[in-house]
Amino acid sequence: MLTWVMYDIVEDKPRTKVAKACEKAGIYRVQYSVFLGDLNKTQRKELKCIIEELIDAETDKVYIFPMCKEDFLACELMGQAFDPKLITDEVKAFFI
Question: Where are the alpha helices (DSSP H) in 1-96?
Fold first, then answer.
C-alpha cells in the first residue's frame, strides 16, 4: 500500500537517521521531510519501530499514513507539491 511518512524532528542527528531509515525501507523522498513509497503492513510496522527508537517523543512529530492507490490518485496537488530536485522516476510511476 502506498505510504506517506512525514516528520518534524527537532535535532539534526535523529532527523538524518529517520530519513536514512525511510530510504532503507525503500520509500522515496518527495520533500525534505516527506517520503512516499509502497510498503506492506509488516514493513510499515518495522519502520515505525525503528523511528520510535530514533526520535524524542516529547518534541518530535512523525506521521505514517497508508493510502490506497485510488485515494492517492484523487489527491489534489498544487504548486510545487513535490520537490523537483528530489522526485524520481519511481515516484512519478505512482501517478500512472
Answer: 12-25, 41-54, 69-73, 89-93
Q: Determine the Cα–Cα distance for residues 23 and 88; give it in Å rounded to an integer.
A: 13
Q: What spatial distance separates the first Cα and last Cα of the chain, rounded to whole Å?
A: 15
Task: State the Cα–Cα distance between residues 5 and 61, nearest whole angstrom.
Answer: 11
The structure's pTM equals 0.84
All structural domains of the chain, each given as residue ranges with its CATH number in brackets, are 2-93 (3.30.70.240)
Q: Distance between CA atoms of 87 and 31, rounded to whole angstroms?
A: 8
pLDDT, residue 60, reads 98
Strand partners, 7: 62
